[in-house]
Amino acid sequence: MIKAGIVGGTGYTGVELLRLLCAHPEVDLAVITSRAEAGRTVSDLFPNLRGACDLAFSEPDVNVLTTCDVVFFATPNGTAMTLVPALLDAGVRVVDLAADFRLKDAAEWQHWYGIEHACPELLGEAVYGLPELNREMIRDARLVANPGCYPTAVALGFLPLIEKQLVDPGQLIADTKSGVSGAGRGASVGSLLAEASENMKAYAVSGHRHLPEIRQTLESVVGIPVGLTFVPHLTPMIRGIHATLYARLSEPADLQQLYEERYIDEPFVDVLPAGSHVETRTVRASNYCRLAIHQPQGRDTVVILSVIDNLVKGAAGQAVQNMNLMFGLEEELGLGAIAVLP
Amino acid sequence: MIKAGIVGGTGYTGVELLRLLCAHPEVDLAVITSRAEAGRTVSDLFPNLRGACDLAFSEPDVNVLTTCDVVFFATPNGTAMTLVPALLDAGVRVVDLAADFRLKDAAEWQHWYGIEHACPELLGEAVYGLPELNREMIRDARLVANPGCYPTAVALGFLPLIEKQLVDPGQLIADTKSGVSGAGRGASVGSLLAEASENMKAYAVSGHRHLPEIRQTLESVVGIPVGLTFVPHLTPMIRGIHATLYARLSEPADLQQLYEERYIDEPFVDVLPAGSHVETRTVRASNYCRLAIHQPQGRDTVVILSVIDNLVKGAAGQAVQNMNLMFGLEEELGLGAIAVLP
Amino acid sequence: MIKAGIVGGTGYTGVELLRLLCAHPEVDLAVITSRAEAGRTVSDLFPNLRGACDLAFSEPDVNVLTTCDVVFFATPNGTAMTLVPALLDAGVRVVDLAADFRLKDAAEWQHWYGIEHACPELLGEAVYGLPELNREMIRDARLVANPGCYPTAVALGFLPLIEKQLVDPGQLIADTKSGVSGAGRGASVGSLLAEASENMKAYAVSGHRHLPEIRQTLESVVGIPVGLTFVPHLTPMIRGIHATLYARLSEPADLQQLYEERYIDEPFVDVLPAGSHVETRTVRASNYCRLAIHQPQGRDTVVILSVIDNLVKGAAGQAVQNMNLMFGLEEELGLGAIAVLP
Amino acid sequence: MIKAGIVGGTGYTGVELLRLLCAHPEVDLAVITSRAEAGRTVSDLFPNLRGACDLAFSEPDVNVLTTCDVVFFATPNGTAMTLVPALLDAGVRVVDLAADFRLKDAAEWQHWYGIEHACPELLGEAVYGLPELNREMIRDARLVANPGCYPTAVALGFLPLIEKQLVDPGQLIADTKSGVSGAGRGASVGSLLAEASENMKAYAVSGHRHLPEIRQTLESVVGIPVGLTFVPHLTPMIRGIHATLYARLSEPADLQQLYEERYIDEPFVDVLPAGSHVETRTVRASNYCRLAIHQPQGRDTVVILSVIDNLVKGAAGQAVQNMNLMFGLEEELGLGAIAVLP
Asked: pLDDT tens-digit profile of B66-87?
C-alpha cells in the first residue's frame, strides 16, 4: 500500500482526489491538511464521503507529511513551492495539482502568477505530468507538475498535428469552454448560480495563465515558437471542458488515421469514429479524454474537438494516473469508473 | 459469474444498469435487447460506455434470454408481464424495474395503468424489492418487483415512524421533488431543457401512479388504511429525488435515535446527525438514501428529509442490490462507488 | 413625475428595481447609493442597463435622499432602520424591501434578526405592503414594509382559506422552493453554481426568518395563533418561488369558486382553471402570482400551488406596486411586462 | 394600428412574437394559426400570456390572412413559400422568420434544405432583414427574410472588418454557442433537459444550414468568395447565442474605434468599452446585440465577441424591428424592454 497525503483538500480538486484515493485499492490515505478546517471531519464538509472516509482535516505538519510515500498538493498557486523542497529532501514524492511547477522559466512564472518563485531550482527537475507525452519521465520523477485542465484538453487535441508538423504552428486557435467548477470552490460573485447559470461568456481573452503552459508544451514538441490564440469561456454547467481547436493544414493527410494511431495504446484517450461529435457528459466523472477530428468542407482548416472532465483528467484523475506511474502500478488502477450519463 | 440479460436497455434506467453491471465483478452481461436499436452497438448509443461494453442491442428472443441466470426488465410499463411467465418457467430469475409487478391487486393495477394485467397470478408471488423491508423474501424470490423512485425515497423516510405507530397514518404528506431524468428518455415537449430548466412545477396532484404503490407499502406495515397526500414536483436538474415528508406525531419520541437504530445495519441508508439537511448531490450516482429528521419548533409535526438518486437507489442500483441478495452475493457488491460531488 | 431614490442598489433586488424604475413612465430615478460601488456607473456593474440608465452609484447622503419623493431601501437587514426616521421627518415616503419593518413586535424582530431594533416606535406605523390585504392602508402610508418573497407566495395562497376560516389554522404546512437569487448577490460558497446546480435541498427547517412574518400575516386575519410548519428548499434555478401549501379542510366548500371570487379584481393574482398546475416560468420577470387549487382524491387535505418571481412580486415589483398605490397612480403602471417564456 | 397575423405560432419563435406583438402599441394582433392547436386559446398553451392575449389558434386560411397588413411566418422551413405568393398578391406584407427566403440561389437553397423551392422567382425580391445592413431596402420591402439566429450574431460581429477589408476573407472562423431553445419546441431526445443539461457539444461541424446564409451576407459586402469555418455548439441554457469570431488582420487598425463608429447610430448594437467581455444574460429577452473587440497579445488574430438573445434579435425581435421599418414606425417601438438580469 502507498501511504498518501493531501495538502489542502477543501476545494473541488481536493474532494475529487478524496473520491478517487478513498476507493483506490493500493492507497492508504493517511493525512489530509487544511488550516481553515483543521479538526473537522472530511465527511462533515463533503457528505458524499460519509462511510468512505474517516479522516479529519489537520494542520499541515511537515513531520507528518514526510511519513507519506507521496503527497498531493491541492492548494492555491504559490503554496506547494514553500513545502515541496522539504518533502523531496525527506524522500517523499510529490504531485502538485496547482501551477507552481508547470512552467520551466521562473521569470515567465513570475510574470503570470505575480509572485517570485520560491524554489526555481526545482523547475527544471519537475516533470510535466501529461502521461501521453512524458510517460517514461513520470515513472522516475520525484516531483510531478500536474497539468492544468485547459492545457490537458488542448494539448491532447493538438499533439498529433504538432508532432507530425502538419499544421502552421503560428496560427493555432483554442476556443475552450469550461464548467464553473474550474473556477474553484472559493466564494465569488461571478461563480454564483444566479450569475453563471443561463449565461455564456468568454473571459481573460487578453491573456490567461494557461496560455504559456500550453505554448510551452507545444513548443517542447515542435521546437519553434508557437502562435496560439487561446479564448476560454465559462459555460453554465458544473463539470467538463470542451476544447474546439482550429489549425491550418500545411499538407494533405489522413487525420482520422493519424489520431487513431497516435492514441491506440493510450488507456485514457479515445478517438471517436470519423464524423462524430464529442460531448462532455460522456466523460463526466471519468478520466477519459475523447476526441473527434473534422475538416469541414474539405478546406484546409482542421477542427479538433476534445473533451475531458476538468476535475478528473483535468486534475485529480490525472494526478492519480501519474501516481500509478510513479509507483509502478497499473496505469488505470482506481480510474476505471465508467462516466456517469445522464 | 452470473449471466445476466437486460430487456429494453435504451432508456435512462437501462444505461444506468449498463454502467453498474458492466463494472460488477460477478456479472457477465450476455445480452441486451431493444427492438428499435437492434444491431446497433451499445456504446454507439451511449458513448460513456466506449471501452467498457462490447455488446450490441438485439431483438428480444426468449430462447436467448432463457440462457441467462437473471433478466432485468428496463422496459415501459406493460412489457415485462408478457415475457416474465416464460422466463420463470425456464428457471430464469427476474428483476422488473417497471411497475408491472409492484401492486398486489390486479384491479388496482389496471385502474392506474390503464390496461389489463397479463399475468395477475404472479402478483402474489412477486416480492417488492425494497431490501430494507423485504430482505429475506428477496433472497429467495424468483420475481422481484423493483420499487419506483418516489416510493423508495418516501417509504424509507416513513418506515420507522409507521413501524412504531408513532404518527397518525391518516394524515401523511409527501412533497417530493424529482430531477427530469425521472420522466425517461422518450422525446416529449415537457421534458425539453427549454421547458423544464429554470422552472419548478408540481404535476399529477390529483393522482400519481406511485401513490397506490407507497400506500400499499405503508399499509403492509401498519395494517390499516393509510391517508397519504402525495404531490410530485419537477425540478430543473437531471438526477435526484428530494422527498420532504410530514406527519403528525401522536406521542413524544426520540426520533433521531429511532431512525439511527432502525437503519444502523443498513448498508445504503444513512441517517445524518441531528440538525442536518440532506442534499441530492451527496447521493448522485450512488446507491445511498440519506435521511434527516426534524421536529420544527418542537411542535407535533415531524419533518423527514429523504434523498436518493432516482436512477440508482430509485432504479438500477436497487435492482443490482436485489440481484446481489437473490444470488447470495455480498449486498454492496458493485455498488460501492462514492457519490460524485460536485 | 415622482422623484425616486434607491439606497443600496447593488444586489438582485436592486438591479430588478432599476430595471422596473428606469422603464416606469412616471418615475424619475434621481439617486442610487452604494458605499462599496460609489463612483461607478450603474451600467458598468449591470450591463443589461447600458443605454437605459445613466446614473452612477453615490455615497448615501441624507441631504440628497431627502430631495426625493420616495426612497426604496434595497439594503441588507438592519440598514434601513438607521436612516428611515430622518427621511420620514423630511417628508420622504419610504418602501423598505428589507425586513426591518415587517414584524410588529420589536422583541420578536430582535429574536429573529439578532440585533436591537433602532426605531421600534415606527413598527406600529409601518404598513405591511401586501396590496391584496392592505391596499387602502398602503395608499396613505409614509412607510411601507415590503413583504418577503416566501411570505408573499404563502400568504396569497392561504388567505382565502384563512379569511373564510375553512381550515384548521393549527395545522398549516408550507413547503416552499426558491431559486438561488433569493440568497442574494453576496459571495457565498453555498450559492455557487457548482454547489447549487444539479442539487435540491431543504434548509433552515428548524426556523426561518420568514416564519414569524407569515404567521403574523395569517394571525392578523384569523385572530388566533396559527400553527405553521414552514420548510424552504433551494432549487437549481435563478428566479422563482413555488409554494406548495397544505391545510386540513374543516368543512366542505367550493374552493375553486372561493379563490376565483377572492381574487377576481386583483390585477396581479391569477387563479388558474380547476385541474391546472402552476409553473414558475409563467411568472418569470413579471409581477403575477399564479395559483392552482387542488383537493386530491377528494380527501380533506387541500393543496394550494402558488408561484411568483421572487425578485418581482416577491420584491421589486411589489415595491413598485406599493409606490403606485402610495402616489395615486394606476396600480399596474410600469408592471405590465409579459412573463418571459421560455 | 397595424393589423397583424402570425402563421404557426406554437413554437418558441411564435410565443416570443406573441409576447412582443401583444405589448406593441401600434399592433392589433388579429389572427394566429396552427393546424395542430386550432381552437385552443393561446394562453392555454402559453400561460405567461394569460391576461395579455385573448386569441385562439385557428386553421390557416388565406382569406383571413389577407385581411392583415402584415403576416409573420413562424413556421418550419418550407411552409411559408407555399403561402407567401398569395399573400403578396393580396397586398399583404410578409416577414418570414423561417429560412425560405434567406438564400438568393434556389439551387443552393435546395441543396441545404432538401426540397425544391416553391417560388424561386421571389428569392431575388426578398430583402434579407438585417437592418444594420439593409435598412433602406427593408423599408420598402413586400417580403422580408428574417435572418437566422447564428447569422445575425456572426454578421454583426464581422461586418465592420469585412466592410473595411481589414481581414483575410478566406480565413474566417465562427465558433458559436447557442442555448437549446434554438433547436425549437419540437419533441426530440437530444434537446431533453436530461441530455442537454450539464453537457457541452459541437454539432453539424461538417456543414450547418446557417453557413451558406452567413457566407452570402459577407460575400454581398466584400464581393469575393469567403472562406468561413463555422462550428455551432449546444450550450446548457435556454436562451442566448455567444459567437466568438476569429479573423487574421491584414493591416494595423484601431478596431475599437472602427466598431464604435460603425454602430454609433444603431439602436440595437452596443459596442462595449475596450477590454470588456460580453455575456448572453445582458441581452436576455432584449433586442440588443452586444459586441467586444479583442486583439490578444497584439498578434494579428482578431477576436470578436458577439451576443444576442436567439429568440429576440435572433428571431422575433428582429422581425418586429423589420415590421417597424416597413410601416414607417419608430424602429425601437415595442422593443424597449431592458434585458432581464439575473
From this structure: 999 999 999 999 999 999 999 9
Chains B, D: CB pairs < 8 Å: 66
Cα distance between residue A323 and residue A312, in whole Å: 14
Q: How many residues does chain B have?
A: 342
> Residues C53, C68, C119, C149: which is the catalytic one?
C149
Peptide bond into B342 cis (omega under 30): yes
Chains in contact with A, counting 3 or more C-beta pairs less than 8 Å apart as contact: B, C, D
Cell (9 digits) for C188 = 457565498
- Which among D181, D238, D342 has the least Cβ separation from residue C181? D342
| Tens of pLDDT, residues C6-22 | 999 999 999 999 999 99
Q: Would you tell me which residues 103-142 of chain D have a C-beta closer than 8 angstroms to some C-beta of chain C?
A: none
Residues in B closer than 8 angstroms to C281, CB to CB, are 198-199
Note the ipTM here: 0.97
Question: Residue ranges per domain, chain B?
Answer: 2-125, 150-310
What does the block give as the cell for D173? 472562423
Instruction: Count CB-CB contacts under 10 A for residue A244.
Output: 30
With a CB cutoff of 8 Å and minimum separation 6, the contacts of A61 are: A33
Residues 6+ apart with CB under 8 A from A314: A147, A148, A149, A150, A152, A153, A182, A241, A308
| pLDDT (tens digit per residue) in D220-239 | 999 999 999 999 999 999 99
| CB-defined contacts A:C, below 8 A | 66
Domain with residues C150-310, CATH architecture: 2-Layer Sandwich (3.30)
Task: Give the nearest chain C residue to A238 (CA atoms).
Answer: C194
- How is the beta sheet containing D172-178 ordered, strand by strand? D201-202, D228-234, D172-178, D241-248, D301-308, D289-294, D269-271
Residues of chain B in contact with residue D194, where contact means CB-CB under 8 angstroms, are: 12, 179-181, 183, 185, 191, 238
- Note whether A192 contacts C: Cβ–Cβ < 8 A: yes
CA distance A310 to chain D (A): 13
pTM of the model: 0.98
pLDDT given at position D160? 98
Catalytic residue among A53, A68, A119, A149: A149
Tens of pLDDT along B144-185?
999 999 999 999 999 999 999 999 999 999 999 999 999 999
Set of chain A residues whose Cβ sits within 8 Å of the Cβ of B315: none
* Helical pair B317-326 and B131-140, crossing angle rounded to 10 deg: 40
CATH H-level superfamily of C2-125: NAD(P)-binding Rossmann-like Domain (3.40.50.720)
HEC assignment per residue over chain D = CEEEEEECCCCHHHHHHHHHHHCCCCEEEEEEECCCCCCCEHHHHCHHHCCCCCCECECCCHHHHCCCCEEEECCCCCCHHHHHHHHHHCCCEEEECCCCCCCCCHHHHHHHHCCCCCCHHHCCCCEECCHHHHHHHHHHCCEEECCCHHHHHHHHHHHHHHHCCCECCCCEEEEEEECHHHHCCCCCHHHEHHHHCCCCEECCCCCCCHHHHHHHHHHHHHCCCCCEEEEEEECCCCCCEEEEEEEEECCCCCHHHHHHHHCCCCCCEEECCCCCCCEHHHHCCCCCEEEEEECHHHCCEEEEEEEECCCHHHHHHHHHHHHHHHCCCCCCCCCCCCCCCC
Q: With CB atoms and an 8 Å threshold, state whether B242 touches C201.
A: yes
Query: Given pLDDT bands bounded at 50, 70 and 90, which one contains residue C254?
Result: very high
CATH assignment of A150-309, given 3.30.360.10, 3.40.50.300, 3.20.20.150, 3.40.630.30? 3.30.360.10
Q: Does B290 touch chain A (CB under 8 A)?
A: yes
**Region at A223 (left for phi over 0; alpha for psi -120 to 50; beta for the rest):** left
Question: Residue C280 gets which letter from DSSP?
Answer: G
